[in-house]
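Handoff note, outgoing to incoming analyst
You'll be picking up this chain. Sequence as last confirmed:
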Amino acid sequence: MRIVMIGSGYVGLVSGACFADFGHHVTCVDKSEAKITALEAGEVPIFEPGLDAIIQQNREAGRLDFSKNLAPSVGEADVVFIAVGTPSRRGDGHADLTYVYAAAREIAAAVKGFTVVVTKSTVPVGTGDEIERIFREEFPEKDIAVVSNPEFLREGAAITDFKRPDRIVIGTEDARAIEVMREVYRPLYLNEAPLYFCERRTSELIKYAANAFLAMKITFINEIADLSEKIGADVQKVAKGIGMDKRIGDKFLHAGPGYGGSCFPKDTLALVKTAQDFDSPVRLIETTVAINDNRKRAMGRKVIAACDGDVRGKKIAVLGLTFKPNTDDMRDAPSITIVQALLDGGATVHAYDPEGMEAAKDILGPITYGKDPYEIAVDADAIVIVTEWEEFRALDLKRLKTVMKDPVIVDLRNIYPASEVAKHGFGYFAIGRKPERR
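Most recent structure output, in case you need it:
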């Protein structure tokens, strides 16, 4: 099939490359001339493990190309996916659909013959209806079916998620569109990936509800972690104990500094706003949003408390800046709030992240970046582990002890056994576990 992906950001680029890897011919379109020029030159603008190889292979096979011009490729397409950004709108927190509607109008003007237009972007309930209204009123002569097909990709594991999904949600009641979407995903039949067809509005809500539930799960275990510290329990053992219950499951029960990234913060807020518009408030989600915002600030205070309540004039080494490992995404990363709290407290901050430092330079304040954990640890009064990159899981603690001014580790991801750190003479402060003081 001939597929056009409008938007070559994270979702569009991963989805387009994977569709091409299925054997479809895919054109990824983006208005950014710099981005398209870079992609045509073989430069992938985002970090996602394995993505550069898939793009290169399918470029060489002639199944994947890039363009700044929408019209030529859309005119020949069977399916057009809208994968543009839907950031939180300034002022009210609603999802900004400016780019979605602009893309829809351009697509409608360019289609020739029956075409399925699919919203892959995360959009509020009713967006598909509005796109259909635009098509019907402004382009009544065009034969277009509007479908919802939300993405469920985890950054850092997106290719696996795309090719071995738990489910593929498709919102449409148009018989022709159903057959087209079956053909789009037919290469996954050997993996027995379930195609779940439902109404378009239901599909749109599934995406928001799924992300909100996972955000609540993270927030729940973070609150249990705070309680664990107060009563002398171990949150990791608590999480394991409740996660063994199949009704609960062990995923997203890892206590930490709060959730961030491109999805959970904006999607939970957008769901809250949608629910308010329909006079059906979602109190649990509202509370989740508030708790998560407060938690990031609390993590800054936790680091300061580990440094005897004062970081003025002290050097703090921060390991990990991105919101999670295996990505260069800094959007709503907990490190942003934590670093700002340390700077506000008068600390000097040195940081290292395997992939996120370039993006961080445009976001964080006056901090110093290093080439590895050991460089930034020299003369440091504390090390703070913010993101659980693999290379931080086996640090040479003996070496760190010799270069640091004050051997203190604040582990906001609980990646070390307290006893292992303490035996090297460190003060160790984790999440939801008893601190090990020197």
